[in-house]
From TrEMBL:
Short name of one Pfam family: Beta-Casp
Protein name: Exonuclease of the beta-lactamase fold involved in RNA processing
Ranges for domain Beta-Casp: 231-341
Gene3D superfamilies, sorted: 3.40.50.10890, Ribonuclease Z/Hydroxyacylglutathione hydrolase-like (3.60.15.10)
Top-level taxon of origin: Archaea
GO molecular function, one term: exonuclease activity
Ranges for domain Metallo-beta-lactamase: 13-218
Protein keywords: Exonuclease, Hydrolase, Nuclease
């Protein structure tokens, strides 16, 4: 058995891992990254005819965005949770609308992808063919996200996709207690290998206090958010802490809110989620959008890095008013307007310089395990278990690997280049 890293090796994003045996191939995720011009960057190619099955951990495009490319001429069985597939369908359709001229697939391939899906239920083993068994568990990252335990040729492999072991308002932490203690290999994301996230209760308190201060001062708060996961978490946090001003939800987050609401059994607090949907105001058109910030209110809108979408409309309108707030609850990549305003206090949008006079703050509402959680997760396993760290920057992760080695966990592999291949002896 061999493991080939098609993407996500030595980089954050475009995760794709191939488990190869003499008779089959199992693909774990197949995502895209985006370059400085916002063009998709794909993982290394894999021939669909070499695959027995595909497992998709969750619907974020850095894990799912290249999958339809595999469904141009074949129908490889695709295993994922029903919510992940429903969200992926929406994400693909949106990606084609925004970047279709860069993508090597169309809505026809998306349709083929969806029709190849076989639903997974947390905790129920599934035979995916050629002697491979797969069991999914809640990953705690976004609604529908899943870890996988794979049994193949007498070996046990754990694949995390993206995961979070800490409870949030939206989800319970990952079901790590269901994972075997002595798997042969664990393939895990280590996005935040060098950073611990703040305690959740402290973070929420500071965030809500800042929001209320702006609102009580007569201003409005723009919260640019990732449409899937972050927007829902922010909405729940505001409602949970009694923010009674109008809360508007715009862009793709509106549809995602409704889809997630149809899966209450996957949520940490279904009643809070229902209340949040009831009290929030969807922005269905330009008319409502123009009036949203005329009174003190909170506006949750994609894109999370202000690269486009409804958030860009509000940012242009609100950034110059000292009464307003622009609060960023997401990671901001270099070369994005969000990163520019945090580092320089202004952003260049459509050739124009927009100076931020509004109150500007960043809050670490990450949906990934932080360094402490990653270390604790690794120490759940036997020191003989081989650990492969993906979806991380090698320079960032190296100190964690060194520390774990000193603690007796010296079987950790940190790849640096897509295409690397490992054999299990």
């Amino acid at each position: 058995m061999r493991i080939k890293l098609l993407g996500g090796a030595g980089e954050v994003g475009r995760l794709a891992v191939l488990i190869k045996t003499a008779s089959s191939g199992l693909l774990l995720d197949y995502g895209v990254s985006f370059d400085a011009q916002d063009r998709p960057v794909f993982p290394l190619h894999v021939r669909p005819k070499d695959l027995s099955a595909v497992f998709l951990s969750h619907a974020h495009l850095d894990h799912s965005g290249a999958l339809p490319f595999l469904y141009i001429s074949t129908r490889t069985p695709l295993y994922s949770t029903p919510l992940t597939m429903e969200l992926s369908d929406l994400m693909y359709t949106d990606a084609i609308k925004l970047s279709g001229y860069y993508l090597p697939y169309t809505l026809e391939e998306v349709k083929e992808t969806m029709s190849s899906a076989i639903p997974l239920t947390y905790g129920e083993p599934v035979d995916v063919g050629n002697g491979i068994s797969l069991t999914a568990y809640n990953a705690g990252h976004i609604p529908g996200s899943a870890l996988a335990v794979i049994e193949v040729e007498g070996r046990v492999v754990v694949f995390t996709g993206d995961f979070n072991t800490v409870d949030t308002n939206l989800l319970r932490g990952a079901d790590v207690y269901n994972l075997p203690k002595n798997p042969d290999v664990v393939i895990m994301e280590a996005t935040y290998a060098s950073a611990n996230h703040p305690p959740r209760d402290k973070l929420e308190k500071e965030f809500v206090q800042s929001v209320k201060e702006v609102l009580e001062g007569g201003g409005s708060v723009l919260i640019p958010s990732f449409a899937l996961g972050r927007a829902q978490e922010i909405l729940l946090t505001l409602v949970k802490h009694g923010v009674e001003y109008p809360i508007y939800v715009d862009g793709l987050a509106r549809q995602i809110n409704q889809i997630v609401g149809r899966y209450p059994h996957l949520l940490k607090d279904p009643s809070l989620y229902k209340k949040a949907l009831d009290v929030s105001i969807e922005v269905p058109n330009t008319y409502v959008r123009k009036g949203a910030a005329e009174e003190p209110s909170v506006i949750i809108a994609p894109a999370g890095m202000i690269k486009g979408g409804a958030a860009l409309f509000y940012f242009k309108k609100m950034a110059g008013n000292r009464k307003n707030g622009v609060f960023l609850p997401s990671f901001q990549a270099p070369n994005t307007p969000g990163f520019q305003i945090l580092s320089k206090g202004y952003a260049i949008v459509d050739g124009a310089v927009i100076k931020v006079e509004a109150r500007l703050e960043w809050f670490d509402f990450s949906a990934h395990a932080g360094r402490g959680e990653l270390e604790a997760f690794i120490k759940r396993f036997s020191p003989e278990t081989k650990i492969i760290l993906v979806h991380t920057d090698p320079a960032t992760a190296a100190p964690l690997v060194k520390k774990l080695g000193e603690d007796g966990y010296d079987n950790i592999y940190l790849p640096t280049t897509p295409g690397e291949e490992l054999g299990l002896q």
